[in-house]
Amino acid sequence: MAVMKKPKIKSIPYEEFKDNETFEQLVAELNQNGTNVIVHSLDELIDWGRSNSLWPLTFATSCCGIEFMAVCAARYDIARFGFEVTRNSPRQADVILVSGTITTKMAPVLKRLYDQMADPKYVVAIGGCSISGGPFKKSYHVVEGVDNIIPVNVYVPGCPPRPESFLYGMMQLQRIVKVENFFGTTNRKERDPYGREMDKANEELLNTAEEA
User: Fold this and answer.
1) N or C: which end of the chain has fewer CB atoms below 10 A?
2) Alpha-helical segments (H) within 18-118
3) Would you say residue 11 lies in a domain?
């Protein structure tokens, strides 16, 4: 027999949680004299709005871009989650969906686009090529994971990943956004791969791109 997990809500017993009539009566009393009350933290309200209106940057370099087109079409309809407003300018985008292979020539371009985005900004690595290099992992001209260039928030594995995986990865990004602090405290920073340790690697990538 399956055991149903009861929700644990602060200061509300489970029996009262199921009692909708009491809440409806309270709302009717509040509205009787024209009183409109919203009881919630402003942080959660803003994060709810941000998580449901993430604008992705149009950035696809190979076959994972076809999956991106499929997930935006009518069958899967990414608009249900508020991600359909793709932007061609990094200054208007909230998240980079790295869909495809990143070569050493493309690496400086990707880094420049990331730097031009306004904070808070996010990165989703979609497919094996963007996560680890994919079938080109041992190749001389492919970056073995975009996390060597920019910090990544969510990884969506697959070659290419199905649209369902794509949507699941975006839902995980929504969860990250919803727990962030917009006021007061600071959020935990992602590890910056372009710190002191990566300055040298960055120069080597640029030199390789110039020589090629």
Assistant:
1) N
2) 20-32, 42-51, 64-72, 107-116
3) no
pTM: 0.64
Mean pLDDT for the chain? 76
CATH code of the domain containing 148: 3.40.50.12280
Residue 21 forms part of a structural domain: no
pLDDT at 187: 53
11: left (phi over 0), alpha (psi -120 to 50) or beta: left
3-state secondary structure of 122: strand
How far is the C-alpha of 66 from the C-alpha of 58, rounded, in Å?
A: 12
pLDDT confidence of residue 38: 62
The pLDDT value recorded for residue 212 is 66
Half-sphere exposure of 192 (CA within 13 A, CB side): 9
Looking at residue 194, what is its pLDDT? 47
**Mean pLDDT within 149-161:** 85
- Residue 13 neighbours by CB distance under 10 Å: 9
C-alpha torsion 69→71→73→77, nearest 10:
-150
* Whole-angstrom distance, CA of residue 136 vs CA of residue 156: 18
Instruction: Please indicate, yes or no, if residue 17 is contained in any of the structural domains.
Output: no
Contact 51, 83 (CB under 8 A): no
Q: How many domains is the chain built from?
A: 1
